[in-house]
Amino acid sequence: MGFLCALLFWQTPLQAGTTPPQEWDSFIALALSADTPQAFAEVETRLKQIRQSGKDWDPDNVRLIWSLARLVTFYRAQPDLAKAETYQIQVLKLLETRFGLSSLQLVIPLGDWAAIQLAQGRLAESRQSLERALTIVEETVGTTHLLAVRPLEQLAAIFLAQNNPSEASRLHQRIADIQGQALMMETPGDAIVLAREAKRHLQEGDETLAASLFQQSKETLMESSGPYHSARVDVLTHLAQIVHDEGDYAQEVELLKSALAISENMRGTNHPDLLPLLKKLAIGYQEMGKPSQSRPIVARLLSLVGEMYGTDHKKMAETLLAMADNLRLEKQPDPAVDYYNRAMAIFRHQDAAPELVRALMGLARSQRMQGKTAAAIHNHGEALEILAKTSAENHPDLLAARRYLAELVAEQAAKQQATPTRLPSLEQQWQTLQGRVLTLGGIREVVKKPVIPIPFVQQPLKNGGYPVPLVP
Question: Alpha carbon 383 to chain centroid distance?
């Protein structure tokens, strides 16, 4: 069952001891960090270069398989189903070479391949892939295992597309029976399978059923494995996401704190896997209206991100931005402005428009708190220009940004009207006049000495006026 648990999270017991061959390092690094179409194009280019150089596939390198799976996900979303299928077939080949033709490792990838085939209208081939996946499950772990649910659901969808509702209904009933039995599971491995099933329902928008399955998984893990089982981190994190969507931020924070404690117990306090949990926990405290509790977590994030990625990485800028937001919410605009400016410098270099907009808006709000309305108008105006180029005319963010800029402009106008005009002093007026006079042609021949103004007499004249200073 431990091997099955590793399968379900795309990990294997051999993962920790696997060292990727040197020639695949660059490809894997690019693939696992790619998050834009341009980045994925670089990944594909690098893969072609490696293959053209004659390098063989390495079926023992699990990270290589993950990297190919990322390409599949990207091209399915484009959608470029032909490319997605090419890479999905390669994923299956590597898995077959590593684990054999009847391994449970093939079940989920076969389902993904069937989905691609179905999207291309190849119903017969899709059904064949799913039947193979279902056969592997039934022969390996039995007919009532939760791994059978996904292929059964996909098969039911094919039967409906083929106008065979009775067969689809039969499969749906079988699915219901399997899920009912799953609630009685008592081993850690089965609880992980239950959690994976809950994830799928969460992705499909059925949060009620997902929450029920996650809760059952959590309780099962507590009873069978104790509070520090690694799988509980994933279960607690997904439960936290569900209660977050329901607006229960206090419960979300408690779940995330539990997940963080487990991760720290297993991995130490400086492991990269802690970063997502720390970020979610910091945001959770912010949403609870407790920035003072969020700030030390963000400070810890800054330290970890700096050690792992350096001071110029986008992740560092995102963390600086989180710290700036915390300080602004705590009514500390001066340090907030510094953090916003540091984040903006990185975002400009990275050409990260959405994050730059957020930083500019946060900076403008902090400057408004400082009383620097003119500077706030400048920065919020820049954010508005970027939004106008990247958003629809009626987008809520764009409309809100325009309203806020109007507030700033009105505030600045009111401030200018309320400030009386300060007349220059007599000495300032005379120095200005003297400078203008001395620029006239020939005046230097007449004026031999510095011209000194005669000061005003302190007492008024009898007629109520004041004397005018005379120039000798």
Answer: 20
Least confident of 1-5, 193-197, 334-338: 1-5
Distance CA 108, CA 4 (A): 12
- Is residue 470 in some structural domain? no
Give the Cα separation of 94 and 312 in Å (integer).
37
Dist CA 136 CA 106 (whole Å): 8
The Cα–Cα gap between 422 and 414 comes to 17
- pTM of the complete model beyond 0.85: no
* Model confidence pLDDT, tens digit, residues 135-155: 998 998 888 877 788 899 999
Please give the torsion angle defined by the CA atoms of residues 70, 76, 81 and 83, in that order, rounded to the nearest 10 degrees. Answer: -20
Q: How many helices (H) and strands (E) does the chain have?
A: 22, 0
Overall number of domains in the chain: 1
Lowest mean pLDDT among 163-172, 337-346, 441-450: 441-450
Which residues, including other chains, have CB under 8 Å from residue 456's CB and lie 6 or more apart?
Answer: 426, 466, 467, 469
Task: Assign residue 220 the CATH number of its domain.
Answer: 1.25.40.10
Q: What is the domain range of residue 261?
A: 183-267
Residue 435 lies in a domain: no
Residue 238 lies in a domain: yes
* pLDDT tens track for 67-81: 898 899 899 988 899
